[in-house]
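Reading is simple: the token line describes the chain's fold. The lines below illustrate.

. . .
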Amino acid sequence: MGRKSFRFVPLLLASLSLLPAAPVAADEFRGPSLTALRVDWRAALDQLRVEINSRPQIAGDFIFAPRRSVPRYDPRAMPALVQLNAISSRFFTGITRSPVPVLLPFDAAAYLEAQRSGAPASLTLSRYQADFNPVDMFDAGPAGYSATFSFEPGAGEGMPSRVFARPVEVQITGSALVYDIADPAGGKGEPVKPLAATYPDLRRFIREGYVRYAFTRFGVAYVVSIQCLDSVAKPRRLACKEAYPVAERFLKALRIAGGQRMRPLMDIASNVLDRPAGRSPDFSYRPSGDIIPNTGYRKQGGHPDLMAYAQIRFPLEKAPAFVRSQSYGRRDKSEGPTAYPWRDNFCESRSFEVWQCGGGYGHQGEDIRAADCPAPGEGREPCDPKQRAVVAVRDAIVIRGAKDQAATLQVNSRTEHIRFRYMHMNPHALNADGVLNGRIVTEGEKIGVISNYLDHPAGTSMHLHFDVQVFTRDGWIWVSPYVTLVSAYERLIRARGREVGPEIAGTAQPVAHALPEDVIKPDLREGSSGEDN
């Protein structure tokens, strides 16, 4: 069962989010600040009217109420939207849970017109989705929605030939909640002239392994993204320039597919988190950003971040557990891999783009190791080092394809739009346990065991890589999970930890970010043991 008593509920007072944050003691943690966007449903219904009326054969089947009735929350005030949802929900389960207009490459009017004209049922759904294959993942909830489609090589009339030989995965998220993070790279990009008339504020930019197209429509933040390599085309790696025409075809095909007007969300103010009053005699941790010396990219240091981005259940079932480097542990001779104090490894050198870390490269998340099994003895609980349980940190929906090595849990609520990623569990075991797209998991539920999988068994050490993403106007951005894990561990052991070690030079930032993805550069680590994450 979920441990709801551990969960922090942020203040839901819009006015407070405008006030400067009160000073926070060095060992206190804050929750994040979020901005709630106000959805313009009148503009959305006007657009829907245009889309429906472009199909004269079925236009008379949709009822549009007078504009003056639109502000009401009763769905009967928007009968055309109710009718549209009835069509789309056959393919996108739960679409009515979205409080924002759901934009998808699905021409519901064309689909209905074909059905009325007696089109054979054998026609594939991609015919009405601009040749994009039926959705691989769709999730809608109180904050917004996310969906993933795929595009086969050679599909689509007029598309340029490409070197890349595998299906291209296209993601879209629309959200009424955006996280406020201090992001100097945020909001940048270049306009896309061919799409400027449809999307006046559209920005295209390559960031952290994805080409992204960010825009605002009906007051809502939308981002379309494709994972790619910012280099020349290669048969096994999609170059970002190859992804441009796929993404722009997707954008041109977007139509209102559904959604439902609900009461507006409210801004969420950052607030100091409650922590256990009693002190742990054992648990200690070094400050955020205090990575092992000379293990950052080009020997640069870490990045302090005192933000606990969510109140979560700790991802390992039992204590003790240790946040420790798996790649550079031999350089930290004072403590072993299963000993306190914890040490941040978010900004250790890797070949992943992470602007928050020095030089723009880092680890993306934190490595966590379970304690060694104690020697068997009277009264001791049996311990199998290969069966240390990994659990869901929150009630969430799973995002994971059958071939994926990572399992992501997404929380979509009135107060959060956040993702938690787990790596190095065996994908074959995850498949057998049904940890796949659309699975609903409960906080504290076992979803796997700590393993050593990286492309193959025994590809890394026995540990769990854990990281966090939040949704911003630039899309899903990785943020440092170190303080989030410290806070979660304190709740697990019901005692407050002790920060030890020297303070980090520089000022701790109240908010920050970093992101994983695919390896996009040659390996830049210095002296690592060969593990990726």
